[in-house]
Amino acid sequence: MIPSDDSALPVTGRLAGQRAVITGAARGIGAEIARTYAREGAQVFVLDIDIGLATQVARSIGGHAAKVDLADATSTSTALEQAIATLGGIDILVNNAGILKMAPLLDLTIENWDTTFAVNTRAMFVTTQVAGRAMVAQGSGSIINMASMGGKLGSPNQAHYAASKAAVISLTRVAAMELGAHNIRVNCICPGYVLTEMGTATRTPEMVEAWTAKSPLARLATTTDVANMALFLASAEADYCTGQAMNVSGGMVMH
Fold it and tell me: Which residues, 6+ apart, have CB-to-CB distance to 199 below 8 Å?
């Protein structure tokens, strides 16, 4: 796993007073977003299936944590409702959690397909409804969904993952269309290769070398690269950005 680097943006209090809920924030990109938001003044609620690690992250930033099983719609809605109640509202929702169990198309099981969509896409639909209703009531909010470069390009052995992330991009656009009238912005981030624990487990050294060579910047992403984009989209600097699928891919994707 690539650790956080020193390229974080200067701390300026851009999220002071904001209340943020982040799914899948016990490790990797989600944990880095949680730390970044907290540094910028947000109250952060961490949701993850690994409550032990989630609690550690929350304690380190003075936030809150709860367990959630995003494959279960009831668990998802209940956990988010509890988080919103604890924070006294919600200004930012980051749907970060995602799973990938690679498999060739002809060997891909229905169970793997369904579980991938349940966590990667359906959970975002559920959280968007719950958070969206709260944001409509207050007349503002920002929802940030984690898509993927794979949602734009696809990749061998990832039919289920790529399809789920393409669905995230479409869900983001429709949500932006419907919620914009309530001053709610909805965007998604499409990272390239970030060697989190999931990335390390599913990429060989040869794959890492090959993808590094494809980037005009000649490197893979760090968790900080993605967290910086999540900070921008959550901040007032992005007040006129909605319905966007923002690449953080080092130029591997340019559309």
Answer: 1, 193
Q: What is the number of structural domains in the chain?
A: 1
Q: Is 193 a catalytic residue?
A: no
| pLDDT per residue as tens, the chain (255 positions) | 334 454 566 778 999 999 999 999 999 999 999 999 999 999 999 999 999 999 999 999 999 999 999 999 999 999 999 999 999 999 999 999 999 999 999 999 999 999 999 999 999 999 999 999 999 999 999 999 999 999 999 999 999 999 999 999 999 999 999 999 999 999 999 999 887 776 666 678 888 888 899 899 999 999 999 999 999 999 999 999 999 999 999 998 999
Domain that holds residue 123: 19-195+222-247
**CB-count burial class (<10 Å; 0-12, 13-18, 19+) for 62:** exposed
- Residue 28 lies inside a defined structural domain of this protein: yes
- Exactly one of 37, 161, 193, 240 is catalytic; name it: 161
Specify if 252 maps to a domain.
no
* Residue 254 located in a structural domain: no
For residue 136, what is the domain's CATH number?
A: 3.40.50.720
Instruction: Identify whether 210 is part of a domain.
Output: no
Inter-residue contact 127 to 93 (CB < 8 Å)? yes
Asked if residue 203 lies in contact with residue 137, where contact means CB atoms within 8 angstroms, the answer is: no
